[in-house]
Amino acid sequence: MLSAEEKAAIERREWPVSPFAIDTMFLPVLVGLEQNGCAFDPTGLDVLDQDLTDQMEAAEFGVRAIAGWDVNLNAPHQLAKLLYTQLGLPVLKRSKKTKQPSVDREVLPDTDHPVADLIQQYREAKKLRDTYVRVLPRNAAANGGRAKTTYNNTLVETGRLSSGSKKKYALSFNAQNIPKRSAIGSQLRAHFVAPEGYLLYSIDASQFQLRIAAVDSQDPGMIAAFLSGADYHEQTSRDMFGTPALRQIAKTLNFAMLFGATRDKVRRTILALLGSTADPLLLDTAYDRFFEIRPVLAARIKEVQHLVSRQGYIDDWFGRRNIYPFDPGTPRWAREKVLREAYNFMIQGPEASAMKIASTILHRHCESYNLRARPVLMVHDEIVFEVHQADGAWFERAIVNTECDLNALVRWPIPIKLDFGKGPNWLEAH
């Protein structure tokens, strides 16, 4: 809850919204997240462990069937030999240290070959099994039944939280990397539970990244679509294709274009969605069509790229700065990749700052109302509270008040909308 002095500061436009002030005000929430953790029920994880192991073995079998030899999927030099020597795939990146062709997770999504897909499937299953399924039960057992992690408040350039520890035998886990959309990620979230008499509330900002892009770019089409209250992705589909039927493609493009998708990436994304039914004309024109209907957004993205290229840094609305250390030895492809992704910072920076402010305000409301509610998880633009069922109505009122306070603070032409869900576990609450 905002104090009288803070509300007066807002009216005077003197609210302390510097990155340092935001990160400092957020500290009580950060401490609560680390001390509280989230109740965790490991029942049934052994089944998930076996499922992931089966997926890893299936991916290994598929790779070896294509390769014709016993490839070790955990050995980068063997993967490089398979991908670049045997299969002759183009080298997209080289290791800074060894100068050898890279097979890291940034390269494989852009490698168009079934082997690359199988390697990614293997890695995802292995990561989920080894860093979550086998760690979380031990983590919770060591913390009285609650899964706890460490959060890093100032480590990421955008201001987003990161979590977990890089120490080899640490039980801390990376909450930010639990997949949102995969079936296995959903299963894992169901094991984060509310204690008896409580519910988990998941709070996030509706279509926040797109709203930020609309406000930052001042693109009239984007602003009008949000102010109309219509489904934004459907409106994009209408603007691009004259029909709302291609909403899923429009939704994918709405996000991909903010983060530097290439023409080839757009083409492959649409092919993955539509398969053999994809219209060749659609594949060839989708990239240009998107920027034709969002010309001011396109101009703003180019403006940010120019600033980054010219001055080597960029500041977001809250004054958080990201530095891009280009030098004469930077390869052209690396420079172009950074410039394509530069606008990412202008979206995720304000998103992180605004969510820290919202979480701080909500936490203050809970203290002011003496609610039995406490923060237990935070993942990017989502924060999860554990709330006593008897205090649920008051907590929901606190969310509404937080939304009002946040909008009074930022005064954007498009209002920020805080959505929430509730349930006995994280999956059902989200």
Q: If you had to describe this structure to a student in words, what would you say it looks like?
A:
The protein is an alpha+beta fold. The chain has three domains: 4-40 and 192-207 and 352-429, Alpha-Beta Plaits; 45-144, Taq DNA Polymerase, Chain T, domain 4, CATH 1.20.1060.10; 210-343, DNA polymerase, domain 1 (Orthogonal Bundle), CATH 1.10.150.20. It is 55% helix and 10% strand. It is built from 18 helices and ten strands. The chain has helices at 4-11, 19-25, 27-36, 45-67, 76-86, 114-133, 136-142, 183-189, 208-217, 220-228, 232-241, 247-256, 263-274, 280-293, 295-311, 332-368, 392-410, 426-429; strands spanning 38-39, 146-147, 151-152, 162-163, 198-205, 313-315, 321-323, 373-379, 382-388, 418-423. The strands form four sheets. It has a four-stranded antiparallel β-sheet. A two-stranded antiparallel sheet has the order 1-2. A two-stranded antiparallel ribbon has the order 3-4. α9 (208-217) crosses α15 and α13 packs across α14. The longest helix has 37 residues, at 332-368. The protein is globular, with a radius of gyration of 23 Å. The two termini are 24 Å apart.
